[in-house]
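Question (not urgent): is this output format expected?
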Amino acid sequence: MKKREKACTNDQERNKKAGNTVVRYGKVPRKEYIRACLEGFILCVGLDYLFYESFAAILFLCPLIFLYVRWKVRRLQKNLRRKMNREFKIALDSICVGIRAGYSAENALRSSIPELAGELPKDSEVLAAFRYMETQRRVSVPLEKLFWSFGRETGLEDIMNFAEVFQTARRTGGNLDEILEKTSRMLGEKLEVEEEIEASLAARKNEQLIMDLMPAAILLYLKAASPEFLSPMYRNSMGIILMTCCLLVYAGAAYLGSRILDITV
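Got this back:
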């Protein structure tokens, strides 16, 4: 993975020196980082209200903002990768139709772009990549090299595997129609398995969310209904230690639950 990232960086530097536009894939928008920071800050304020009732404790909880942002960004990147895999399968199907109609791979790529523009969202990264490939192909950049660069820049294993097979087939004169069809079928099967897993775990994830919120809801109810019941736990050293232990156990249980339900194919 590190070698792929290093190779991707080298390609981007060469494109910059050559004056080409560098297309970045799977990048989380800046507004999502800002939103995650705000959500992390709200989380810290909520935990401070439930466990400490002290302004100074917010400073102690500030590292949670960075941990939350990191977790949120990874979750968004996972969703982006899954979305890109779906869109890439649609793009492969479109190219495969062109090749079956007798087009070369280059002409099939060009003819697939208008069709993909109608099927994929306007902000589709795969659509942007195919348009970029077409502009680079017009200046005599080999198609196999463009797919190779696209696979390395996305970092997606399925696209990388396809790029390697496509590059080998172009060199040895392999059957592109069969390669595209097989790659699309394998990618489709993988996506179907992921969707089945997500569907089977949907109820468990909802249960996990309820279990994560239940301790906070109980504390909030006690603070609202009987403030004097929890008052000995605040503003004294023993209470702070006990509440910190409870918070650590609470956070550990929530993290463990999320890891158990995080199944990747």
